[in-house]
Amino acid sequence: MSDREKVFPTLTRRGLLKGGAAVAGGVVGLGGFPYINRFAVRAQETPLKFWQFYAPGGPVASQVAWFEKTVADWNDSHPQKIELEFIPNSEYISGPKLATAFASGEGPDIFIISPGDFLRYYNGGVLKDLTPFIDDKAKADFPESVIANRMVDGKIFGIPMEVEPMAMYYSVKAFEEAGLNENDVPKTWEALLEVAKKLTTPERFGVMFETQPGYYQNFTWYPFLWQGGGEFQTADGKSSFDSPATVQALKFWQDAINSGVAPRQIMGAGGHDTIANLASGYVAMQNVGIWGISQLQSNAKDFQYGVFRLPTPPNGKYVTVGGGWAFVANANGHNSDAAGEFCAWALASMDQGSVDRVANWCTKGKSDMPPRNSALKSGGGAFSTGMIGKFAEEIHPGTRAEPRVPPEVYKIISDAIQQTQLGGADPQATATAASQQLDAFLTSYQGAPIL
Questions:
Q1: Would you say the C-alpha torsion 55, 383, 398, 266 has a positive or negative sign?
Q2: Would 109 disulfide with which of 48, 95, 357, 414, CB 3.0-4.6 Å?
Q3: Each residue of 98-114: pLDDT tens digit?
Q4: What is the pTM of this model?
């Protein structure tokens, strides 16, 4: 059994059967028309399903509008129609809905994934090669640091729509109530916990880090590992997780919980939700990404807040993580060529409409850094003023791309974070045990490169 069959056995076998049937049937059918043409006609009559957690019915009106307009513009100019299908964020990111759908052979035609989950679907044989739909000039428009973790063997399997660096947000009101101001913004881990203690009241926690296990929690923890010089694997593919940098990063999050300045329970949709946590007054500082700007603008316009770079450990170096979602197409979908063409048309064409679409997503639909040089230029002053300007000038320059890892690696790291942050386990012993597990897996891993 191949590695891809091991990940999605039902999907792979079914796909092979479909492929064999298509070849056998692609001769001449009734009336002298090739079966493949009749299949193409039927495929166009059925709208392609586009799964994501923005529209219709998402919580941010500007994001709903962007997705609906993108799909409407495509449908107005192409015979193969596309239909948006909204999956709640909690089910899409942390729940099994997407993976379960593919395992049962019912995956969507188009969907979005983060770098952290890329290898699950690439190694499973799910992702369509989008390279044929993107011209060379458009390929060059994506910086290597942005596109590399969506590529395998020089081919592009996902088109990023954004770059999302992480930072710390704080409530101006909470700072003022504690006798603090922007001059008291912490620059070190120790200072962060000290300030968080001053901000903590019987009704409010001083700071918040994600506590729910999942790809998002791993994503938000990576910068704290990197700031101390830590990595989870060496250049030759062995584990490097058992290190002082790993131990201090695990201990830092554990200390925030144990000292009572950070909550065990997250409100709303999770640690990425600024409205239910920061704006509500549940926490005074929140570790969250650039998308928080649009969340607050859309749903808490009167809330006053500030943003600052992630603090650093002793002798550490500032670095943050830049995630972001990408459009991908199901290689085994109803009309994978049309799905691939849509992804490129929407986000990776040199047509001005495509360039502006990316810029509008990053400045009007959401609040992100653009993944394309042309979109950065098209956005103009939006990336040099206000909160997005602050991200662009102070936070984004320290961005490192989100790692792409297979599910087994993600789970080992996730378990280590959970065991120490909430379970009270010893950080050193946990790092050692996790490193041994990583080594055991990495020695036999045969999928696409881990980046």
A1: negative
A2: 48
A3: 989 999 999 999 999 99
A4: 0.89
